[in-house]
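In the design runs reported in the main text, the only information available to the sequence generator was the tokenized backbone. The following block is the verbatim input for one such run; it is reproduced so that readers can re-run the procedure and compare outputs position by position.
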């Protein structure tokens, strides 16, 4: 990648969420707390699922992978942001920026695909309960997770390679707290038509496609729940997918909110602030949603804490 004057570009500047000096300690403390809560909460979910034999089911297998992706996506962006605030240095190397963009796309797409896989799992559990163990066998569960991770890695690699082909002008300031794909394309001085087309097409396939699958699964789930005669049966069936539905609503609600707000305001700083919701807040809240709504998770966490105390 080169600048417009053919001088190799060595670094970008991440402007962050605010340039006000008095807000930097507040932002540092706030994001440090959010990061620690995210890592600890999701790590507890992973440990609880792996240590408790009662949770060795497809739903919790997918949940542990989702928790791992949430830890990784926040670790991709927040530590660098904290270092920049602490050192009062906004610079990020060219290689570091490309690497950060690669892993953010990678784990973001993994999140999207895993939520779709979890919706399919709930669909099979509620609509085909007698065949659940046959359909959701360990081989299929492992394959679904493997395909999710491989698809995400291939897409993030494609986008990173395409950004490597771009040249940039002298203005290398990114009005964001991490190297975001759209912001990188806007900084380019070369033609980004092909990059934009690939980005929009991939967004339709890897965001619209999974969302359509989730909506289809839940339309079938709602139909099956309505066909249950007893109120207790309806409540039990709904409770098995309530946590996942809450996480999906939070993830897609914040993501679409960021996209629509940035499209209407065209304010990069506002978009960066709004993106905190889906890139930081959502991964932090996911463990609380599952642990508060799932008695199995709460029981496993109590046993895990008890063993640690002993």
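Verbatim output:
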């Amino acid at each position: 990648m080169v600048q417009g004057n053919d001088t190799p570009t060595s670094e970008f500047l991440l402007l962050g969420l605010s340039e006000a000096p008095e807000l930097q300690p507040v932002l540092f403390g706030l994001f440090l707390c959010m990061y620690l809560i995210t890592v600890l909460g999701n790590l507890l979910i992973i440990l609880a699922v792996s240590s408790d034999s009662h949770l060795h089911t497809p739903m919790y297998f997918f949940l542990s992978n989702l928790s791992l992706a949430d830890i990784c996506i926040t670790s991709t962006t927040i530590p660098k942001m904290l270092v920049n605030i602490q050192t009062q240095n906004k610079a990020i190397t060219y290689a570091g920026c490309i690497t950060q963009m690669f892993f953010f796309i990678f784990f973001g797409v993994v999140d999207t695909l895993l939520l779709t896989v979890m919706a399919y799992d709930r669909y099979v559990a509620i609509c085909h309960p007698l065949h659940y163990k046959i359909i959701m066998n360990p081989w299929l569960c492992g394959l679904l997770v493997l395909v999710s991770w491989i698809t995400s890695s291939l897409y993030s690699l494609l986008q990173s390679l395409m950004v490597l082909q771009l040249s940039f002008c002298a203005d290398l300031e990114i009005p964001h707290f991490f190297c975001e794909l759209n912001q990188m394309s806007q900084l380019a001085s070369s033609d980004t038509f092909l990059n934009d087309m690939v980005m929009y097409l991939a967004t339709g396939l890897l965001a619209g496609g999974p969302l359509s699958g989730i909506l289809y699964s839940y339309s079938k789930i709602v139909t099956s729940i309505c066909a249950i005669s007893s109120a207790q049966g309806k409540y039990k069936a709904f409770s098995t997918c309530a946590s996942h539905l809450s996480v999906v609503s939070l993830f897609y609600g914040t993501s679409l909110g960021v996209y629509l707000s940035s499209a209407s305001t065209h304010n990069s700083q506002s978009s960066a602030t709004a993106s905190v919701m889906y890139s930081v807040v959502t991964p932090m809240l996911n463990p609380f949603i599952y642990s508060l709504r799932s008695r199995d998770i709460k029981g496993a966490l109590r046993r895990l804490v008890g063993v640690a105390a002993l």
